[in-house]
Amino acid sequence: QALRDARASRVATAEGLALVALGRRDEARAAFARALAERAADSLSARTALALLREARGDREGAREELERVLDAAPRTSDDWLAVGEAERALGRTEPQRFQGALRAFD
Q1: How far apart are the C-alpha atoms of 88 and 95, rounded to whole Å?
Q2: How far, in whole angstroms, is CA 79 from its chain's centroid?
Q3: Residue 58 DSSP symbol
Q4: Does the pLDDT of residue 40 top 70, yes or no?
Q5: CA 24 to each of CA 18, 29, 31, 56: distance values in angstroms, whole numbers, following the listed order
Q6: Euclidean distance between CA atoms 78 and 59, whole angstroms
Q7: pTM
Q8: Coil, helix or strand for 63?
Q9: Among 7, 8, 43, 107, which is most exposed with the fewest C-beta within 10 angstroms?
């Protein structure tokens, strides 16, 4: 079941990213929400993308809250580390210790 949920989350995240590229933001938001529901809200890529959509919509505070959740999470996969990097960049942070953790994860 956990593997199926993780797979469904990845598919929903990919769908959301494709919809963003097509300019279909409302549908993208729904796809990211599905991704979060499938993995009990720990899909960092979906959460980061959702935050960036909120920011584009003018909801800076909502975006900041989502990005902070990403940064509070414990990254486990390369996709998670990429999401953390996106969140750091979106918040204008350049904390070297976070990037060192990402580099160690890729070694």
Answers
A1: 8
A2: 9
A3: T
A4: no
A5: 9, 9, 11, 13
A6: 28
A7: 0.75
A8: helix
A9: 107
